[in-house]
Design a protein that fits this description.
The structure is a single chain. It contains 4 helices and no strands. The chain is mainly α and 87 residues long. The protein is elongated and about 65 Å long.
């Protein structure tokens, strides 16, 4: 549950950083300040942390897929009573 909360917080932080970069881009037209560059750099760092967190969750088994097509690709993940009814 903590991993999912961290993922949501990182995703919201990426959106905030992206929107602040847009605001800085619109306000700083012709101004030599580098606020847009710094905001986009922060977005790249946050996005890398987000992808790393998702990869860690999948690797550690805390994040799993519940998609219907994933049952066909990985039948060993099904519970024993589900495999008997599908055959």
């Amino acid at each position: 549950m903590l991993l999912k909360a961290i993922i949501i917080i990182l995703f919201i932080a990426v959106l905030i950083s992206l929107s602040s970069a847009l605001v800085f881009l619109m306000k700083d037209v012709g101004n030599p300040r580098k606020r847009t560059l710094y905001a986009l750099g922060l977005r790249v760092i946050l996005a890398t942390a987000l992808v790393g967190t998702i990869a860690w969750g999948i690797y550690s088994g805390q994040l799993t897929s519940k998609a219907p097509w994933d049952r066909q690709l990985h039948p060993e993940r099904l519970a024993p009573h589900q495999t008997a009814t599908q055959s």
